[in-house]
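ok so i was messing around last nite and threw this chain in just to see what happens. nothing serious, just curious
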Amino acid sequence: MQMRFFCYLIIQITFVLCFSSESALTGEVEPPPVAKELCVVSDGRIKESSGIALSRRQPDAVWIHNDSGDAARLFLVGLDGKTRGVVRLRGDWPVDWEDMCAFVASGTSWLLVGDIGDNARNRSLATSKGRSKACRLLLFPEPEMMNTTELEADAPTVIQFEYEDGPHNCESVAVDTERNEILLVSKSKSGSSDVTGVYCIPLTLNKGTTTATARRIANLEIIMATAMDISPDGRRMAILSPDGAFCVDRRENETWGDALKSKPRIVPLPKRRNGETVCFGRDRNELLLHSESVGQPLWSVTISDIAAGSLSTSP
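result:
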C-alpha cells in the first residue's frame, strides 16, 4: 500500500512539473467567460479547420479553410453551420495554409490567406521554388456569394516574405488597417530556444507579386501560438494558444509593439478538439472558435473589457 501511494505521489508530482514546463506564461487568469455553442459545422469537406474569419459581406457567416493537404479553397459557412459556398483560388496550390483574416480597406472587403506554415523552417525568398517556396500572403476582394454556391477567383495581390532573423514556423496572421500593417506571430514549442515573436509587414493592396521582410517588433512569453486576429475597431488583439486566448488592448496612436509590454490576461476557452482557429465577431467583445475534425462546434465566447489586458514581453 505504501509503495502504491508513493508511486501515485511521484506520478502527480511529475504531472505538475510537466504542466508547469508547458505553460511559459505567468499572469492573471480570468474567470471563465460566457461561451455559447452556435452550431455544428457539418460539411464533411472541412476536415482540418485551420483558419477562420468573419465575413464582412455576410456578417452572419464565417470563412473557413483547411490545413495543409487540401486544395486552395475556402468555405463560406453560416452561423447555422450550413455551407453557403466555396471559393477556389485559380492556379494556386497551398504549401501550408495556416490562418486567414478579413478586413475592410478603402471601402472594399478583403480576405487574406496566410500560406505561412513552415515546420521544417526552410522557407525563404532564396528557396522560393518548389515545395519549400517562400511564405506567402494571398490577398483578394471578398466574393459576395449571394447568387452562387461555387466560384473561382484570383488573388491579385501576393506578398512573398521572409523574416529578418531567419525562417520561423507561423500559424497566426492579422491585419491592422489603422496602421496599414500585417501582423504575424511565430509558433514556438516548449523547451525550444526559439522565442515567440511578433512580426510586422507593411500592408499593400497593389496588384502583382511583391517581396517583403517581416520585422520583429516584440517577443512574447507564449508557446504554441496557433491563430490570431485584430478586432474590427482595431483596438484589440487576440492570440490563441493551448493556455487560452491572450487579449491585449492598445490606445489611440499606440503601436502594437508598445501595447505588447504588460502582464498577460488569459481568457479561458471551452474545451475543443484541436482548436486552432480564432477570429473576432462583430465587435471586440466576441471571439469565434472552431476546431479540427469533421462535425465540430462553432463557439461564440463573450469577453469583457476587464479581460483585455496586455501580454508580457521578454527582454
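not much to say yet. The CA atoms of residues 117 and 310 lie 26 Å apart.
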